[in-house]
Write a structure and sequence with these properties.
By secondary structure, the protein is α/β, with parallel strands linked by helices. The protein has a domain of 237 residues: Aldolase class I (TIM Barrel, Alpha-Beta Barrel), CATH 3.20.20. 30% of the residues lie in helices and 16% in strands. The longest helix has 19 residues. The mean pLDDT is 97. The structure holds P-hydroxybenzoic acid.
Length: 359
């Protein structure tokens, strides 16, 4: 039988009932303290028929925050809140991993402990505005991390991964995409360091590879995924030679035997024109399971799987509006349209009140 979106698959130790993944989606609806509440439990439980849910990007420490209303995965209270989410998803037969996030320079003092400056590989201010409690405010010049501070950041990823295991997640996804901290180290538009973490592709990839090694050592490669976005210009990102750095990263990640590599195959959020990039060549270099993402529909998702390009496909916006996306895709049923005015923040409206298909 032909393999398609509705075929089973195993990523690392995660047995999935289909290959339709719910992509990580920032929704800014978590209460003070970053502790998931009943409304958040309901939202994920409603979407448990996805082959795998990747949670919204979740800060690994107080310094990793960059928007209001985010969850966290570093306190006991957050672990207890997430445990309710994972229990609800598992009770429905679903699988769920948490995306581990440090925003780096994409933050603002008002969102950070003691109003300190955001941290980054280099003191380069991104163009654009931070979303703060007081509204949009210009990004500030971040503070360049000292090389002596990096081991503590690696430890924060490990602590968060261990918290994720205590919260009952099936695994973690290390967020190294979309212009946040690890991606800021990878790309030379945001990393002009002259030490062992800047300059050559080996040096720029060093922090991601150290984080990956440490998380793998802590919880196992079969429970660890990584997300990359080689040419996404969102968050004022650029690189002088993306194929060189990302081909190198793909080759190095082969050595870990990860659960999967998740790739944003272009630009998001209207962040500008994505640079040319040979995704087919990049894909060939990576030998493990590959999760494709970016505006796939059913036909393109099935084609990507049938051709061997992808092992599974992550859908974002369609999952906001269609909790039963898998059933709808399978039945070729019409999709609910997503209301972009309720994507970020607010209440249950536009979050848990999208209708299911009625047969
Ligand atoms: C966002 O909040 O817009 C956002 C968060 C994480 C991403 C991408 C976008 O990876």
């Amino acid at each position: 039988m032909e393999v398609d979106l509705f075929s089973t698959v195993r990523l690392g130790c995660i047995e999935m009932s289909n290959r339709v993944v719910m992509a990580p989606l920032t929704r800014n609806r978590v209460a003070e303290g970053g502790v998931p509440q009943q409304m958040n439990v309901t939202y994920y439980e409603q979407r448990a028929s996805a082959g795998l849910i990747v949670t919204e990007a979740t800060p690994i420490s107080p310094m990793a925050h960059g928007y209001p209303g985010l969850p966290g995965i570093y306190t006991d209270e957050q672990v207890a809140g997430w445990r309710k989410v994972t229990d609800a998803v598992h009770a429905k037969g679903g699988k769920i991993v948490i995306q581990l996030w440090h925003v780096g320079r994409i933050s603002h003092p008002s969102l950070l402990p003691n109003q300190v400056l955001p941290v980054a590989p280099s003191a380069i201010r991104p163009a654009g505005h931070a979303v703060t409690v007081e509204g949009l405010q210009e990004y500030v010049v971040p503070r360049a991390l000292a090389v002596t501070e990096l081991p503590a950041i690696v430890k924060d990823y490990v602590h968060a991964a261990q918290c994720a295991m205590r919260a009952g997640f099936d695994g973690v996804e290390i967020h190294a995409a979309n212009g946040y901290l690890l991606d800021q180290f990878l790309r030379d538009g945001s990393n002009v360091r002259t030490d062992a973490y800047g300059g050559s592709v080996e040096n720029r990839a060093r922090l991601l590879l150290e984080v990956t090694q440490a998380v793998v050592d802590a919880i196992g490669a079969e429970k660890t995924g990584v997300r990359l976005s080689p040419v996404n210009p969102f968050n004022d990102m650029k690189d002088s030679h993306p194929q060189a750095i990302f081909n190198f990263v793909a080759t190095q990640l082969n050595g870990f035997n990860l659960a999967y590599l998740h790739v944003v195959e272009g630009g998001i959020h209207g962040g500008g024109e994505a640079a040319p990039f040979d995704f087919a060549a990049f894909r060939k270099l990576y030998h493990g399971a590959y999760m494709a993402n970016l505006a796939y529909d059913k036909a393109r998702g099935n084609a990507a799987i049938a051709s061997g390009h992808a092992d599974c496909v992550a859908y974002g916006v369609p999952f906001i509006a269609n909790p039963d996306l898998v059933a709808r895709l399978k039945a070729d049923a019409p999709l609910n349209e997503a209301d972009s005015t309720t994507f970020y923040g607010g209440n249950a409206h536009g979050y848990t009140d999208y209708p299911f298909l009625s047969f």
